[in-house]
Amino acid sequence: MCAKKSADPVIDEIRTLRAQLEQANYRYYVEDAPSIPDVDYDHLLRRLQALEAEHPEQVTPDSPTQRVGAPPADGFPEVQHAVAMLSLDNAFDEQEVRAFARRVAERLETDEQTIRFCCEPKLDGLAVSLVYENGLLVQGATRGDGRTGEGITANLRTLRSIPLRLLGDDLPALLEVRGEVYMSHSGFKKLNDDARAKDSKVFANPRNAAAGSLRQLDPGIAAARPLEFCAYQVARIDEAWLKPSHSALMQQLREFGFRASPEINVVTGADGLIDFCEGMGKRREQLDYDIDGAVLKVDDLRAQRELGFVSRAPRWAMAFKFPAQEQTTVIRDVTFQVGRTGRLTPVARLEPVQVAGVTVSNATLHNMDEIERLDARINDTVIIRRAGDVIPQIVSVVLEARPENTQAIEMPEQCPVCDSKVERLGDEVDARCSGGLFCPAQRKEALKHFASRRALDIDGLGTKLIDALVEHEWVTTPADLFRLEAVKLAELPRMAQKSADNLVASLERSRHTTLARFIYALGITEVGEATANALVLHFGELQRIMDASREALEAVADIGPIVAGHIHNFFAEAHNRETIEDLMRVGIDWEEVEVGEREQPLVGQTWVLTGTLETLTRDEAKARLVALGAKVSGSVSKKTHAVVAGEAAGSKLEKARQLGVEVMSEQALLALLNQLESAPSSENAS
Q1: Which segments of the protein form a coiled coil according to its record (predicted)?
Q2: Neighbouring residues of 384: CB distance < 8 A, sequence distance ≥ 6
């Protein structure tokens, strides 16, 4: 689209910016093929906002800056629809679809197999009407009762998938477009994730979220929600712009700047309708938005007029409805599943019910905070939702149906799998089993962590091999790894004798480690490498760490009450102590750690390593920095103390220079480390 030239360069730039932004919106929302990065779009929009602020007389209603330009309303005005927004008759099976095609053929007095139907998915959102005069959006309204809706123009103007001005120069004087406002699955998830982070209300499903967003009196709220619009019908248009078919009109809407469903297809006869409905049903779960069926329309507009209407529905269209994805049922009990990381998840045991064609008897309750938010109890009637292959979830409780015999849902004090203590500290959302090394539910994950490179570094012990060892019941605790024999290992599928010998040799090497690596390998919740090093430097001996009180643990640098609670609970669990003793019996050892009064001179400093180091490995450099009290981060910020740049350092080095962060060579780092490691306790780093 080209902007017209004028004598004023400011007006030219404003027009050019608007044209660029409109084109970017069209490519992103209609063609699903972004033409510029988001950062460039934001730059263009900010420039246009600045120019319009300097020249307010140039602001027009269709400017991209005016999508949120209205103050909050006191209420929504009534809007009388010039053409009623009628509902559709429904079909629920193949026989009803074939009956629809047969009725159409009989009324048109033609062969059923020659009739062309335009088919598209039935979006599960909120139907709205948009009216354009001379290409400008002048009114937006909800469906309401079909005759009268609510005027929500200001809210609809905030949706970037709705053009404020139609694309093109030759435009109809009048156009009314019908369509659906909805929220994608990804947008809905982000909306609820953000709400949970702010301890705000979360929405039950995307449709409720979309409807609730459009009925906000403040357009700014609607603008902040991930709402989208998809056109499905032309209700009114100048006679000169009429096309012979519905599908041709939908193509015209795309050219005007609207999004129409990419799934639209023109088929012939009842067989074509059945094939489309079955195909949409199969693709339903792969879509990033909810659909509850398919809309089937006679494509020929002249035939539509001849068929006319009956009661409140057109004879030329029908909605094929998929099985409902939401149903009501009753919570009969709640059990707790233990995940591979020890997290306990409450699962509602339900009165079996058919949802989306599947019998559902279980639904996730996520965590105790979600149970509290829902106010869910045993024996409550609840609405459950199943979308995709994921476990169904409880959307809401039907409080009006709450019986007198409900029971509160309580987190167990002991793990239902291994009987270890269940911990939930501070404001943490999740409750966890504290028997990490012992708990069968966590076995595979605990072993993978124990053998990882930064823990015991057992070369050759990968995920698939751990899975096989656990499934053969050859390994139940980490200590069992060191009892494996090469002859027995060679019996495993795809395990040659040489590989078995190499693994046993690797296990032998890993018996000799450091105390910090061993602490990290135990997999204590929230105890990473830095915390493990801090514990070792503070206490010096494993037994002292195991016997430390919460207060003593909190005295360690950078360990707060939550982490101290995790550590204390882990070592207080008898199962974990037994596993550690077993590891000592199979020969795990380390050199004694000297604990003195020497200060850690790099406490409070954050360092970043980038590029390839020649003398040290990244792990060695990190370990020595951490031992001196530093934190080693993977990203550069204004709080970074220094960046060590090796060969082929990339974006982190560039960002350090931009932020003015000190950049140090590997040689300079080595010199500093040697100096600090040999310095007396009173010496500090600059």
Answers
A1: none
A2: 326, 327, 328, 329, 350, 353, 355, 360, 363, 392, 393, 394, 395
CA-to-CA distance for 26 and 6, rounded, in angstroms? Answer: 25
> Between 38-54 and 9-25, two packed helices, what is the crossing angle to 10 degrees?
150
User: CB under 8 Å to 210, separation ≥6 — which residues?
Assistant: 125, 126, 181, 182, 183, 225, 227
Long-range Cβ contact pairs of 104-111 (< 8 A, separation 24 or more): 104/298, 104/307, 104/315, 104/316, 107/306, 107/307, 107/315, 108/303, 108/306, 108/307
User: C-alpha distances in angstroms, 41 versus 18, 22, 36, 61, 65?
Assistant: 11, 10, 7, 20, 12
Pick the CATH number of 440-590 from 2.120.10.30, 1.10.287.3510, 3.40.50.300, 1.10.150.20: 1.10.150.20
CATH topology for 9-59?
Answer: Helix Hairpins (1.10.287)
Strands 317-321 and 90-91: parallel
Known binding site for Zn(2+): residues? 415, 418, 439
Q: Which tokens hold the place of 238?
A: 């100048």
Q: Which CATH architecture describes the domain 606-677?
A: 3-Layer(aba) Sandwich (3.40)
Which residues, 6 or more positions from 203, have their beta carbon under 8 angstroms from its beta carbon? 188, 191, 192, 195, 209, 212
CA atoms lying within 13 Å on the CB side of residue 300: 11
H or E element at residue 14 = helix 9-25
CATH 3.40.50.300 fits 326-401, yes or no: no
Extract the tokens encoding 338.
Answer: 């233990």
Long-range contacts of 58-63 (CB under 8 A, 24+ apart): 58/10, 58/11, 58/14, 61/136, 61/137, 61/164, 62/136, 62/137, 62/164, 62/165, 63/18, 63/164
| 523 C-beta neighbours (distance < 10 Å), count | 23
583-615 confidence digits (pLDDT tens):
999 999 998 876 654 567 888 889 999 888 888
Task: Provide the 3-class DSSP secondary structure of residue 385.
Answer: strand
CA atoms within 13 A on the CB side of 107: 17
Which residue positions form the known binding site?
Answer: 38-42, 87-88, 120, 143, 180, 297, 321, 415, 418, 439
The distance in angstroms from the start CA to the end CA of the chain is 59
CATH 3.40.50.2300 given to domain 90-321? no
- CA dihedral sign of residues 394, 400, 406, 410: positive
Token reading at 470 = 């656990």
Is residue 685's pLDDT more than 60? no
Q: What is the CA radius of gyration of the chain?
A: 33
3-state SS track over 512-578: EECHHHHHHHCCCCCCCHHHHHHHHHHHCCHHHHHHCCHHHHHCCCCCCHHHHHHHHHHHHCHHHHH
- What was the pLDDT predicted at 628? 81
Alpha-carbon distance of 327 to 324, in angstroms, equals: 7
Q: Nearest 5°: phi and psi at 267?
A: -125, 170
pLDDT in tens, 180-198: 999 999 999 899 888 877 7
Domain ranges of the chain: 9-59, 90-321, 326-401, 440-590, 606-677
DSSP-assigned letters across all residues of 620-663: HHHHHHHHTT-EEESS--TT--EEEE-BT--HHHHHHHHHT-EE
The candidate with the shortest Cα–Cα distance to 176, out of 256, 121, 122, 248, is 256
Task: List the catalytic residues.
Answer: 122
For the record, the structure tokens of 579 come out as 């596993």
Task: Report whether 174 contacts 132 (CB < 8 A).
Answer: yes
Tell me, what's the pLDDT at 5? 61
Q: 112-134 burial by CB neighbour count: b if 16+ within 10 A, else e?
A: beebbbbbbbbbbbbbbbbbbee
